[in-house]
Design a protein that fits this description.
The complex is a heterodimer of chains A (380) and B (398). By secondary structure, chain A is α+β, with helices and mostly antiparallel strands. Chain A has eleven helices and ten strands. Chain A is globular and about 80 Å long. The two termini of chain B are 32 Å apart. Classes of the chains: A alpha+beta (380), B alpha+beta (398). Bound molecules: flavin-adenine dinucleotide (2 copies). Chain A: GO terms for molecular function: acyl-CoA dehydrogenase activity; flavin adenine dinucleotide binding.
């Protein structure tokens, strides 16, 4: 057993940590967040140049073939800086889906460009009635000549506002609720019949809603076998969830540091508020949650690379549950311990808190994962 | 033992219900239900309607234009208003400074300020907190120095709720820096239009402008604007805080919020069924509803005691803690039930004039922002930690 980073991983962490500090000061971030595309193109270019964008991409396609642990290293630093670039959605989930489902020519067409930062992907998995479960997809793709005709609505596509291509989950067969019949299509958001409405999210990054009205797709827009995307999608969502845990971890660490610092400096009743035992214990509870979340994030990063199994699913769901609970607890207590200051937009803590709570709205909150785990418990 | 309202009280409740059915503007009620921001005009419209009926100053004695209602009647009125989706009254004038003026003010102060509160001429805000004086309110540093018939005020107040709408502010100021903290404070009424006052917005984490910083730079305030004796402002401050704490459980607001949450859950879909049928969500709803029932019953017990002439004591801290936790829990569920649709941050859509197509549904815009905004409930009005300190000391003798 060895829980330490390799030298390369440590170097990656140091490099990113420095880069994030340079690019993601509070003011800089607020500027970036305000206007389209909702992230820093300069920072994204730096990530490309330093090879960070290539980390999770397969070595055969211009990437570095990084494991779940490399994803952990990257996402933790991006989370610490509350970075707004769609790394998770584009590089990890988008790239992972292309690798898992794409043909060799599709991979060759997309992955090197993705690794080089010339292509941005987004994944449209949510709809008005999916509630984190892709098997409830209603968007349909029907055969039309040699290609496909796509119709439906997609909600809250994170990074979709700037993506060059969007991977759309659609039903080519079956009914909502069935896992069979789901397919994955590569859609050009500029294509006729695609409408996107962009907006910032509560978590920080921007997203868009998509209306798809009879969008005509060529045959090679389909990734993988028609109707057979569900398993690969589930497996790649597992990678994304592990990465999201790491992102949360970085942000939780910051929130805890800021709060601890505040307890030592804020004076009321003639002493630092950190002298009040109730606040000491609360801070200890936060740190304890952080500790457990760290452990589960490591677990998730390591099992993400394993082939699909019920055990892997259970562990990833458990990690999401523990981390998301910790994230909300830490966010709420960090605000509470700061008093009014914790509620002000002009202080980075508020943005960590927003991020930590709202990341429960991608891939599901702790209660959804509690229920998912309970369902698997019965089966085991 | 009888846990029911009397015939007379029930008749009163029906009267309130009928009034609300007739008079509460539907557009305002809809905004309240959907969690949209109310404009100053919305508040003023509702206040005027209540004033016409003689019900605006529910807590004042009859002689000043109040209602003379019993504590139970006041409670019923508040709860019915909340349940119907009426805006919560901005309490700084009618329910904070007015009781202080009625209790400690001179006849001239009463004659001047009270009618102006009743008819909506003045909008008040509360200038207690300062950067260095939050929970430790007695640490206020804003300085008032006597100069003939005036005080010259210098300093800063913060977290001033809706100060951007206000033309008057009541302040705790330090008049004797040598005395013990509580002993050197006076209670001043200050015209916000006075030269030397500036107001700066503080944007909160939900993106809203609700609180402000208020700066005082050599502001001249007539000595006649002092309520109570010089250096005896703490008495007014404490009296006001007990008023601030009543009705804090917000039972009616929680009931309305819970009903709205169930309505959302009827429309949202989880695993192909209305979210309201999701077993885990139902369990969460059940938890909060049962707890709300317990807090309501506790409120009634305290009311009955007050009706019989008892003074509400430390128990009101229990109501503040549990009531705020329940409201926060409901807002937490309202955001969760929306799933991914809670994510869009459309601050402009919280404004009233926006009539663009909502992204998902009209009810999906506000819950996440409201969840964030309601973190304040456990911070202000005496934080929940401070309430527990009060309970430990006053109720338990620790
Ligand atoms: C089943 C059992 C087996 C044991 N076996 C042994 C044994 O084999 N040998 C032995 O030597 N002892 C033994 N103990 C004793 C044990 O170590 C003591 O019970 C323990 O140290 C607590 O002391 P106390 O019971 O006097 O409680 P106290 O110290 O009086 O504590 C009472 C409560 O006050 C809290 N408290 C105390 N100080 C603080 C503080 N500064 N801040 C916040 N909270 C505080 C405590 O957490 C506790 O909740 C045993 C106890 C039990 C219950
Ligand atoms: C949205 C909002 C609106 C407000 N509106 C107004 C207004 O209109 N007018 C006005 O005057 N004020 C207003 N306030 C201010 C409010 O009253 C203060 O925020 C509150 O008193 C807490 O003070 P603080 O923010 O300085 O936090 P602090 O007092 O610094 O508290 C920080 C943390 O320490 C804890 N703490 C402090 N002392 C102790 C102790 N002895 N034991 C244990 N824990 C302790 C607190 O509970 C909190 O968790 C508002 C605040 C907010 C957030």
């Amino acid at each position: 057993m060895d829980f330490s980073f390799s030298d390369e991983q440590q170097m990656l962490q140091d490099m990113l940590s420095r880069l994030v500090r340079e690019h993601y000061g509070f003011e800089q971030r607020d500027q970036v967040r305000r206007s389209a595309p909702g992230f820093s193109e300069a920072f994204q270019a730096q990530l490309a140049e330093l090879g960070v964008l290539a980390v999770p991409i397969d070595e055969a396609h211009g990437g570095m073939g990084g494991s779940g642990v490399e994803n952990l290293v990257v996402m933790q630093e991006l989370g610490r800086g509350l970075c707004l670039e769609p790394y998770l959605e584009s590089q990890i989930l988008g790239g992972g889906l292309v690798q898992a489902l794409g043909s060799e020519s599709q991979r060759e067409a997309l992955l090197p460009a993705l690794a080089a930062g010339e292509l941005l992907l987004a994944v449209a998995s949510e709809e008005p009635r999916t509630h984190y479960r892709p098997e409830w997809t209603e968007t349909r793709a029907e055969r039309a000549g040699d290609g496909w005709r796509l119709t439906g609505r997609k909600s809250v596509v994170i990074g979709g506002q700037a993506a060059h291509r969007i991977l759309v989950v659609a039903r080519t067969a079956g009914e909502p609720g069935e896992c069979d019949g789901l397919s994955l299509f590569l859609v050009d958001p500029a294509a006729e019949g695609v409408q996107r409405r962009a907006y910032p999210t509560m978590a920080g990054p921007w997203a868009c809603d998509l209306t798809l009205e009879g969008v005509m797709l060529a045959d090679d827009a389909l990734l993988g076998a028609a109707g057979g995307a569900f398993e690969a999608l589930g497996h790649q969502l597992g990678h994304a969830m592990a990465a999201q845990c790491a992102e949360a971890l970085g942000s939780m660490q910051q929130a805890c540091e800021l709060t601890l610092d505040y307890l030592k400096t804020r004076q009321q009743f003639g002493k630092p508020i950190g002298r009040f035992q109730v606040l000491q214990h609360r801070m200890v509870d936060m740190t304890t949650e952080l500790e457990l979340a760290t452990s589960m994030t490591i677990l998730a990063a390591c099992v993400a690379d394993e082939p699909a199994s019920q055990e892997r699913s259970r562990q990833l769901i458990a990690a999401q549950h523990v981390v998301k609970r910790a994230a909300q607890f830490i966010a709420e207590q960090a605000i509470q311990l700061h008093g009014g200051i914790g509620m002000t937009w002009e202080y980075s803590l508020a943005h960590h808190a927003r991020h930590l709570v709202m990341l429960g709205h991608r891939f599901g909150d702790d209660d959804r994962h509690l229920k998912a785990y309970a369902d698997l418990l019965e089966a085991s | 033992m009888n846990i029911h309202f009397s015939e007379q009280e029930l008749a009163f409740r029906d009267e309130v219900r009928a009034f609300l059915a007739d008079e509460l503007p539907a557009d305002i009620a809809a905004k309240v239900r959907l969690g949209k921001k109310l404009s100053k005009q919305d508040h003023q419209r509702w206040q005027a309607i209540l004033h016409r009926r003689g019900w605006y100053a529910a807590n004042w004695p009859l002689e000043y234009g109040g209602t003379g209602w019993s504590v139970v009647e006041k409670h019923l009125f508040e709860e019915e208003c909340a349940a119907a989706g009426a805006p919560r009254l901005i309490s700084f004038g009618v329910n904070m400074v007015a009781p202080v003026i009625i209790k400690f003010g001179t006849p001239e102060q009463k004659a001047h300020y009270l009618p102006r509160i009743l008819d909506g001429s003045d909008w008040w805000c509360q200038g207690y907190s300062e950067p260095g004086a939050g929970s430790d309110l007695a640490a206020v540093k804003t300085r008032a120095v006597r100069e003939g018939d005036h005080y010259i005020v210098n300093g800063q107040k913060t977290w001033t709720t809706l100060g951007q709408h206000a033309n008057w502010i009541f302040c705790l100021v330090r008049t004797d820096p040598e005395a013990k903290p509580q002993a050197g404070i006076s209670f001043l009424l200050i015209d916000m239009e006075s030269p030397g006052i500036s107001v700066r917005p503080i944007i909160t984490l939900d993106g809203a402008h609700e609180v402000n910083e208020v700066f005082f730079d050599n502001v001249r305030v007539p000595v006649a604007n002092r309520v109570g004796e010089e250096n005896d402002g703490w008495t007014c401050a404490k009296y006001l805080l007990t008023h601030e704490r009543t009705g804090q459980a917000g039972i009616g607001i929680s009931k309305a919020a819970l009903a709205h949450l169930k309505e959302i859950a009827r429309h949202e879909v989880i695993e192909g069924r209305p979210a309201l049928e999701d077993p885990l969500l139902r369990q969460r709803l059940a938890e909060v509803e049962m707890r709300l029932m317990a807090v309501e019953m506790s409120t009634l017990r305290i009311l009955a005691r007050a009706q019989a002439g008892g003074v509400p004591g430390a128990e009101s801290s229990i109501l503040k803690i549990t009531g705020s936790e329940i409201r926060q829990a409901i807002s937490d569920l309202a955001r969760r039930v929306l799933g991914p649709h809670a994510l869009p941050f459309l601050a402009e859509e919280l404004q009233l004039e926006h009539d663009g197509e909502p992204l998902h549904a009209d009810y999906s815009v506000a819950p996440a922002a409201q969840y964030l905004n309601l973190r304040k409930l456990s911070i202000y009005g005496g934080s929940n930690e401070i309430q527990k300190n009060i309970l430990a000391k006053a109720q338990l003798g620790l």
